[in-house]
Design goal:
Number of helices: 12
Helix content: 25-40%
CATH superfamily of the largest domain: Glycosidases
CATH class of the largest domain: Alpha Beta
Strand content: 15-25%
Number of domains: 3
């Protein structure tokens, strides 16, 4: 019945088929003689179709683009395809790719984090495929962030050859590094890190037995700097600095100064906060953003046990939360990453709160956002069961495509820098808020539905707004003074979100 009504409307108004999605919605909604219920349902469906097809109108002045997706273990060719087909239309600014340099051989995911050389030949693809990926993503408007493993090399067990044929042992890497280019801290009988309250040990001993590069030396800085600069010249637009905590911030700065267009590069550093540790995330903001690991821990605690309404009241989630948090402009927040989902330190994809937590961090006003797109696994070491990516098959989750996440990116983008207003809480696990007059979000972290009654102040301009988070094709009707005309029903463990 609905489809026939829409078809009839297009026959009556044939020019509708020639217009873009938002204009079609506007003309159809205003056209005389079309029943109100049909207009509302059509608007909801059109919003969903627009979301799926990437027809959102975004201008540089009106749409905030600062979200990164980590396509963990994706081959270069699949990353390139995804930039064009989904990431750019959905509003992602960057894609973080797995380490592209030569590494030790093996099916485990972590072999990527044991470099053998800086040749761009890895399990993810060849140098030519890497360059093609960067070019295609850049052309689509999505910058490539490389996961840069520069703190260390391999554990040296066993010795052998890397993915490009380079030979290596623990402290010898063809013509790149030899014994004297590494730290030998003389601690704990094996040079391994044992005491994280000792700055010297954390930054001069070996992380899990991995040969620790002497990043204070000119040779090592030049070698790493040349690698990163070569990536920048290809067109890479940023780096995730792996294991940053294990390098002094000044060493990272000296290395990055060797990179072309350093000022334009997006840098995010892995610095895991510890309450009793001397190395602080604040030390690293001179180089760029820092991952807020405490945020991921708090999101798990509040969404799972203590009540997620505490994220918005009495003190909103962000820098005011103290230890482990930084000012918003220096912070990159996330629900989980490839390490945390394997260690139990965060929410994971199987949790009913997983998508809700993503909606929250995307629509709240703190930091830039990273989203992990991973795969299902049984054991810690497991790499993907299928090399090529097939979303929804062979364990590839592709959560970055989920309507709730893509819709939340739209709300974030259109809300821009608008402040959080009109905070509503109902118990400890339900909350709603607006982003100025540009967006409104309601999150229900309970299994039962939550109803926001007519008259509720949500701060939006009068009008009818389709839910962009995919909750049952809901249309939110707003009247004078930004108050609801009809009630909103938010399903259990779900959310409703709208934007101008």
């Amino acid at each position: 019945m609905l489809s026939s009504s829409i078809a009839s409307a297009i026959r009556v108004y044939p020019r509708l088929r020639l217009l873009g999605g938002p204009l079609i919605a506007g003309l159809f909604f205003l056209a005389p003689g079309i029943p109100t219920n049909v207009r509302h349902r059509f608007l909801a469906i059109l919003s969903f179709l627009t979301l799926g097809c990437g027809l959102f109108y975004r201008s540089p002045e009106s749409f905030r683009r600062d979200v990164t997706v980590q396509l963990f273990q994706w081959p270069h060719i699949d990353v390139a395809n995804e930039c064009e087909s989904h990431l750019a239309p959905a509003g992602y600014r960057w894609v973080q790719v797995s380490p592209p340099q030569e590494h030790i051989r093996g099916p485990q995911w972590w072999v990527d984090y044991q470099p053998v050389s800086y040749i761009l030949n890895s399990k993810r693809g060849s140098p030519q495929q890497f360059v093609e990926m960067v070019n295609r993503c850049n052309a689509a408007g999505v910058g490539v962030i490389v996961d840069a493993v520069v703190n260390h090399m391999t554990s040296g067990r066993p010795e052998g050859f890397g993915t490009s044929g380079s030979s290596f042992s623990h402290y010898s890497y063809d013509d790149i590094y030899d014994y004297h280019d590494f730290h030998h801290c003389g601690r704990n009988g094996n040079d391994h890190i044992s005491d994280y309250t000792d700055r010297y040990e954390v930054q001069n001993c070996e992380l899990l037995g991995l040969a620790d590069l002497a990043t204070e030396t000119t040779k090592v800085r030049d070698t790493i700097g040349t690698y990163l600069d070569s990536l920048a010249r290809i067109g890479v637009t940023g780096f995730r600095m792996d294991a940053s905590k294990h390098m002094p911030a000044t060493d990272i700065r000296a290395i990055l100064q060797r990179v072309t267009n350093r000022g334009r590069m997006h840098i995010v550093q892995e610095v895991i906060f510890g309450f009793d540790e001397p190395i602080r995330p604040e030390e690293y903001i001179m180089n760029g953003n820092v991952h807020v690991f405490q945020g991921a821990s708090d999101l798990k605690r509040l969404f799972k046990t203590d009540g997620m309404a505490h994220l918005v009241h009495p003190v909103g989630w962000g820098s005011a939360w103290g230890n482990g948090y930084l000012a918003s402009e220096h912070s990159t927040v996330f629900v989980t990453n490839h390490d945390l989902e394997r260690s139990g330190g965060s929410l994971v994809a199987a949790d009913p709160q997983y998508l809700l937590a993503h909606v929250f961090i995307l629509t709240w006003s703190y930091g830039q956002v990273d989203i992990l797109s991973g795969y299902n696994f049984t054991n810690f070491d497991d790499g993907p069961s299928q090399f090529r990516v097939h979303c929804g098959q062979f364990g590839w989750r592709c959560e970055h495509r989920h309507p709730m996440i893509v819709g939340a990116i739209q709300i974030r983008g259109r809300s821009g820098s608008q402040p959080v207003r009109n905070i509503i809480t109902s118990g400890s696990n339900r909350t709603a808020y607006s982003r100025g007059s540009k967006g409104f979000i309601a999150l229900n972290n309970e299994p039962e539905e939550w109803i926001l009654p007519p008259g509720t102040q949500i701060g939006m301009k009068p009008g009818d707004y389709p839910d962009v988070l995919g909750s049952n094709q809901i249309v939110v009707r707003v009247g004078g003074r930004g108050r609801l005309i009809d009630s909103i029903v938010i399903p259990g463990f779900s959310a409703v979100g709208i934007h101008l």
